[in-house]
Design brief:
Length: 162
């Protein structure tokens, strides 16, 4: 059901992502323009770069993965459910979206610095899962240690504390 309706679900997010990406590129001094869901600019190699922001670029799969993790954590640790946990989870969704924006920006910057061929494809393939994975580790480490109270590292005690 989700896969068949992915384009319809993500359509409202695409213009926002395009505007945000254009704004960030302009902030970095790259004169980028948009035409619907296409972003274009001239690379340092002098070649034009055209990026299409489509449903897969919205980070919907990352948001879905984060949602599954939230369901697993909340069902496994129901004692952690509170107003604070919902605030933290909201921050988690925002961070997941921001991780996707970082991915799109990294793809754009690789196109700007190295041209439209070669590096941009490798960045597109690899940076997304690296950024998302780092975000998940940071977020869930904080959640587990601060909200649930789990310690992942053995505490060392002074002789006087024993």
């Amino acid at each position: 059901l989700f896969i068949r309706n992915e384009a319809w679900i993500t359509a409202p997010i695409i213009p926002f992502i395009v505007i945000l990406t254009i704004s960030l590129l302009n902030f970095f001094g790259i004169s980028a323009v948009a035409d619907r869901n296409y972003i274009s600019f001239i690379s340092q190699t002098g070649d034009p770069v055209y990026l299409a922001i489509v449903s897969d670029c919205t980070g919907i799969w990352s948001l879905g993965t984060f949602t599954v993790a939230v369901i697993i954590v909340l069902s496994s640790f129901p004692q952690s459910i509170s107003k604070k946990s919902f605030l933290l989870i909201g921050i988690g969704y925002i961070g997941t979206f921001c991780a996707n924006i970082i991915r799109i920006l990294a793809i754009s910057l690789s196109g700007y610095y190295f041209g439209p061929a070669g590096v941009i494809e490798q960045v597109h393939v690899h940076v997304g899962w690296i950024v998302f994975s780092l975000w998940l580790v940071i977020f869930w480490y904080y959640y587990f240690t601060r909200q649930i109270g789990i310690s992942f590292f053995k505490k060392e005690y002074n002789e006087s504390e024993k």
